[in-house]
Amino acid sequence: LRAEEMLGRWFTDVTGLHVAGEQTLVEHPVDRWMRATVDGFVVEGPNSTPDMALGVVEFKTTSEPRWDAVPDHYACQATWCLAVTGLPKVWFGVLHIAFGRPVFAVYEFDRDEDDIEFVVHRCATFWADHVLTGQPPLADGHPATVDALAAVYPDAPAGSSVELDALVEVLTAL
């Protein structure tokens, strides 16, 4: 949170825009399962409120040099935020700390209805097929899946297998 406060001030210095409603949980007005926590809302003035938002702001820090474009994983996050809020734009305030030299950059990400439709459809399917039914998705070889399984089964030898019924019990208890 401290970094986000600092990046918010930097964002204002660079853009002349302000941040309101830091760390706000938002919910889609109709599809209430659609939720997101935004780092803040971009507003015109220091006394503006989140209901006057021009868009969403997300703050990032990275050891990468400046981006040519918003990376895909952040573009997905931005698309979801726009779907949930109905707003037209996400600003990314990014502190790049590549090569030991901090550089603050601002990137704008505009609403794309085709991307929103795709992401919402995929999330709605996951929600209906897995969250509402309590049925976990099939495991895959993605590093995030491997890491999650390793966290649940820290004593299992690498490459071993376990009965997933036990995993389902652990995950549903969370």
Overview of the molecule:
The protein is an alpha+beta fold. 39% of the residues lie in helices and 22% in strands. It has helices at residues 2-15, 72-85, 113-131, 143-152, 164-173, and strands spanning 18-20, 24-27, 35-38, 40-43, 55-62, 89-96, 103-110. The radius of gyration is 19 Å and the shape is globular. The mean pLDDT is 91.
Q: State the major sheet.
A: 5 strands, mixed
Cα-based radius of gyration, to the nearest Å:
19 Å
Helix-strand pattern: HEEEEEHEEHHH
CA distance, first residue to last residue:
25 Å
**How many beta-strand elements?**
7
- Report helical residue fraction: 25-40%
| Overall 3D form | globular
Structure class: alpha+beta
Low-confidence stretches: none
Our count of helices gives: 5
The average pLDDT value, as a whole number, equals 91
Strand content: 15-25%
- Give the strand order, joined by hyphens, for the main sheet: 1-4-5-6-7
Descriptive key words:
5 helices, alpha+beta, five-stranded mixed beta sheet, 174 residues, two-stranded antiparallel sheet, 7 strands
In brief:
The chain has 174 residues and is α+β, with helices and mostly antiparallel strands. The protein has helices spanning 2-15, 72-85, 113-131, 143-152, 164-173, and strands at residues 18-20, 24-27, 35-38, 40-43, 55-62, 89-96, 103-110.
Layout of helices and strands:
Elements: H1 2-15, E1 18-20, E2 24-27, E3 35-38, E4 40-43, E5 55-62, H2 72-85, E6 89-96, E7 103-110, H3 113-131, H4 143-152, H5 164-173
Parallel strand pairs: 5-6
Antiparallel strand pairs: 1-4, 2-3, 4-5, 6-7
Helix pairs in contact: 2-3
